[in-house]
Amino acid sequence: MRMPTDQHIMTGRPSLGAHLRLQFDAVRGKYVLLGPETVSVVNGTAADILRLCNGRRSVAEIEAELIGQYREVPAGEVAEFVARQVRDGCLEISDG
Fold first, then answer.
1. 93 within a domain of the structure (yes/no)
2. Is residue 68 assigned to a domain?
3. How many domains does the chain have?
4. In sequence order, what DSSP letters do the residues of 37-61 get, joined into one string?
5. For the domain that residue 19 is a member of, what is the CATH number?
6. Which of 25, 55, 81, 93 could bond to 12 as cystine, CB 3.0-4.6 Å?
7. Farthest CA pair distance, the chain
8. By CB neighbour count within 10 A (0-12 exposed, 13-18 middle, 19+ buried), where does 22 fall?
9. pLDDT tens-digit readout, 48-78
């Protein structure tokens, strides 16, 4: 599998891998990423980003929405998070 370039990550539209589901776990009081035989607890900021990764928004659009929510988002942080999740197989990038 070829890794997407930084440009492709910025212009593409990230979505959760087909094998994953993001869900709120009421017992833990946190969001979890569920995969085959795995459960990963994610922090609030990561959950906010992952919820916006629906295959319809670009990374720039996700970042803009988060700025509206948090007022400040460090430059490049969303793109770095998305790139890391793509490398780890949690997110897929489709063409914009």
1. no
2. yes
3. 1
4. TEEEEE-HHHHHHHHH-BSSS-HHH
5. 3.90.930.60
6. 93
7. 39
8. middle
9. 999 999 999 999 999 999 988 888 887 789 9
